[in-house]
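Worked problem 6 (solution included).
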Amino acid sequence: MSAQEQGSVPHDLNCLTIHELEKHAEMRMDKQTRDYYNEGADSGSTLLENTLAYNKYRIRPRVLRDMSQIDTSVSVFGSRNSVPIGVAPTAMQCLAHPDGEVATARACGKAHIAMGMSSFATSTLEDVAVGIGEHPHVLQLYLFEEREHSRKLIQRAKKAGYKAVFLTVDTPMLGRRNLEIRNQFKLPKQYKIANFTEDSGSAATETVMDGSSSDSGKEEKKSTSTKGYHDGKQRRPPTGPVTFHTHAPNPTLSWDRDIVWLKEECSPEMEVWVKGVATAEDAQLAMHYGVDGIVVSNHGGRQLNGSLATLDALPEIVEAAQGKISVHVDGGIRHGTDVFKALALGADFVWVGRPVLWGLAYKGQEGVELCLRLLSDEFRLCMGLAGTVKVEDITKEYLVKIDKSGFVSRL
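Solution. The predicted structure is:
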């Protein structure tokens, strides 16, 4: 039963949809933060298509079924999640609200919803683990060329009870984000990239993008970071304190070397997933190398502009997986019906990113709770009106696809 049906949580009459939540957030975020969170790579066409892809499908509702007891819950990482929705890992949430990732974690724990934690968070992974409590949380990982940084993070995540590592595999180099460049984005002085302060030991922990400290002039030598490069003979890894632009992109990542290493480091406490798979071929390689799960993702449209929307990429990956490996998807989800459509196309679970940031900007923890409640209630209503009482009932039989001419085809 939804919160509204139970009567325990009244509607926020100023915000009844995710679209309205986005508008409220826009008014509360400064331009730098708003642009950083909301833009995609280059022209933003893939960012837009992630959302529009859901409009290609219509739901085929079934009737005269007993809908008096609907179960929206699913099992994920060994626990029961209230809905097949998780909060995707997104960086630097203190930009949206001073409580940042900890507020998001508390909202997730309260809603019994899994949370992803970004490597480049503005709260420590330990604080987030405390905030979410016993409910599952996973660590999004950029595997750095200097593995010791990543090894330390993995060990801390193990101790803090994280259930899995989501290795980001779609950033051998960074997509071009023009507003980020124009705004010369820097993390404000009052915040830091919390999980790498021990590695840096300098004012560069206050920066994130280009390796130059926001504390003008002070400790200039100590706080300079440089990108990796190939000198013609060998690869030179990034140097200096960990920053996003210098350390996150890793062009050296490969299946045969890095997945094996990562599985050894994470075993036995944490599963290893790959986040950023967009083709059947890479899904097959993921299975070959023994990863525990796949997240179909294009980094929120922030990497390769012109790539497939995640919903469009999903069916071939589901077909390649053949039920042998879990397949999750993120990108473009703005309504509970979108969750239903993704599951009908074969996803086991979905992850939601930007709407959670909008909720955080709107009212902190309360705003994240609102975001999760809107999506959960919409999803439950969709299940009931479509004629499904359990998540496992949702299959492609409940969808049709609309082509550009408006013709309908069964899947």
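Discussion: The longest helix spans residues 365-386.
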